[in-house]
Amino acid sequence: MLPKIHKDPVKWSKPHVIPPGRPIVSDCSSETYRTAEYLDFFLNPLSTTHPSYIKDTDDFIDKIKNVDIPADSILFTIDIDSLYTNIDIKEGIQSVNNIFSKNYDKKRPDKELLQLLEINLTRNDFEFNNEYFLQIKGTAMGKKFAPAYANIFMADWEAGALRQCDKRPIYYYRYLDDIWGVWTHSEDDFKIFLNTLNNFNPSIKVKSTMDRNSVDFLDTTTFKGPTFNQTNRLDIKVFFKETDTHALLHKTSFHPKHTFAGLIKSQLLRFHRICTQKEDFHKATKVLFTALASRGYSRTFLRNCYKRFLQIKPQIVSSLVPLITTYSDSTVKLVREIKKNFVDSFKGRELFYNHRIIAAFRKN
User: What residues does the Reverse transcriptase domain cover (predicted)?
Assistant: First the structure.
């Protein structure tokens, strides 16, 4: 049971004492593990085809950084309450069937996949405290296909729910059970919009946050800042949850020395990608360095890492040529030889200028 300590302590199961929990049952080495993996192979590519899909923070930033936002608009976020455990099994299977129909593939064994999905969802039993339980609703969070399955269900849900709404957001993006959007109608209209979403399916309930200036989403805060005042485009900065202790690798850990500098560089790169204002980048860096100082990192080491980061010159981005093959000792050697000879073989050919080979190993 993973405690949800980031939730409001007032709303905990026992306020300020016992937080709500997220039940996780590992599916590794279970009877259905291989079938769950097989299902994920087919479901995962289909789970990213809906228009609201967000892959990660970088994808979210790419989608919103160049959009114009009306001056009087409202920013909002929506959270789906306990999505994984609240998906009705029959409705979830129907959503998968719907997306199979929309994306027909004669090589895909749709009938068998739906049967396997039903088995995985209806026969998920586990033992706890010497008692046996059978999950009768939702999907186990430990199932490999669970994120893709939930995404497909939510895509079906939001398509139907949004059709019921007289007024809709001008921008609407979703990362699994977290939604971000821009509302250009009245606050009363937004309440009607939320009410419509909550009444569309009795199993799915939503909670929202709205503000005319800023909202937190994933690990970002989107807000109407200096950029908005000039171009009507949102500014973005790093969002740290109150429960974020920045418990990164301790300096006394027996890791290779370069690991510590690499860790700091990766965080600074993340801050740099997210923040649109230098001031916000510096603030996020200060928060990180304050936390790292208490974990054994000297001020001199942190300062040197920061200076090296600022001195990094942008490199020319190479176009990647993926060499897709099944992993084995022989193919590793083959890829190494191809990489070695690629530049010489295509030297002088403009088509392959600034290209490089990368290995992409498929599952065996």
Answer: 1-228
